[in-house]
Specification:
Layout (H helix, E strand, L loop, with lengths): L1 E8 L6 E12 L5 E11 L17 E11 L3 E12 L17 E14 L2 E13 L15 H4 L6 E13 L1
Antiparallel strand pairs: 1-2, 2-3, 3-4, 4-5, 5-6, 6-7, 7-8
Length: about 170
């Protein structure tokens, strides 16, 4: 269990070594289950400075995530969920004049690893993400676009992405 400035990795497609300020833990009790979770500030608010031109303002971004694995000698099954959201109240005035809007991201991933023969390991990972470029937009997006549309507050600025990886290792 860790408090303060922490980095954790759930998946290359969600939380991948990103440093945050908050709370995180990895539990590995006796048996097959593994649980990891995090909650915290992913980035602090950055204000615009008239004398410094190379600093781009940004909203404060908060996030949480959880990863659950079930592992046996011959296989492993894993699920992870990660969500990050910009805090609209980071600044007293809007950043619209700079074309910067508050964003939201939801990622759900699944992982499978099997060892059918001695020395052979097959693994695959699937992750899908909903990225909303302006969380204030109230124009609804058709819900049938992606199953994450049912879980997230998808709007007209939401895009859906999918990543899939398969690999085979033999030692």
């Amino acid at each position: 269990m860790t408090f303060g400035d922490v980095s954790m990795t759930f998946s290359p497609y969600s939380l991948n070594g990103h440093q945050f300020r908050g709370f995180g833990f990895d539990l590995s009790p006796k048996g097959s289950w593994r649980l990891s979770a995090m909650l915290g500030r992913l980035s602090k608010a950055v204000e615009q400075h008239s004398e410094v031109n190379n600093v781009l303002p940004s909203y404060k971004k908060m996030g949480y995530g959880v990863k659950l694995n079930f592992e046996k000698a011959k296989y492993m099954l894993g699920l992870n969920l990660f969500q990050a959201k910009d805090n609209l109240n980071s600044f007293p005035k809007s950043l619209d004049s700079l074309m910067i809007s508050p964003q939201e991201n939801l990622v759900i991933g699944a992982e499978v690893r099997i060892r059918p023969l001695k020395g052979l390991e097959l693994s695959s990972e699937l992750a899908t993400s909903a990225l909303t470029r302006d969380s204030r937009d109230s124009t609804p997006k058709p819900r049938h676009t992606n199953f994450l549309g049912w879980l997230s507050k998808a709007n007209h600025t939401t895009s859906f992405y999918t990543a899939f990886k398969m690999q085979m290792n033999y030692t």
